[in-house]
Input
Amino acid sequence: MKSEDGEIRVWAAFALMRIDPDGLIRMADMLRMLKDEDILVRRAAIIALYELKAKGPDVVSACLNMLNDKSLSFPASWHNCCLAAEALGDIGPDAKEALPALEKVAAGEDKRLAGVAAEAIEKIKKASTKPSTQP
Output
């Protein structure tokens, strides 16, 4: 996780996903990797969080940061934005704060990315309106 080599950090993210499938032990490491200077490390971390179905305010914040990261070049930025939007959609109602950012992406010029963002918006809103199953 602290190697100078970005490729090793990428493999570390995938290894953590397999070793700790519930993500309980290494969530902090994954969140830290989302801020890595290496785009591939950030991509590996968002994939791992997506696969783990990670939730919580820290994950929402990290996904929002990835959606708003303008320092990346295409296709890396496009792929990471798609993964972040999909993760936010899967988080559901707890990702309501992401709706303005997702709406901005959905109104953008890239139709494929806009479609992914629109789907995430729909998932968040749909999950927010479901009646509670708790007594």
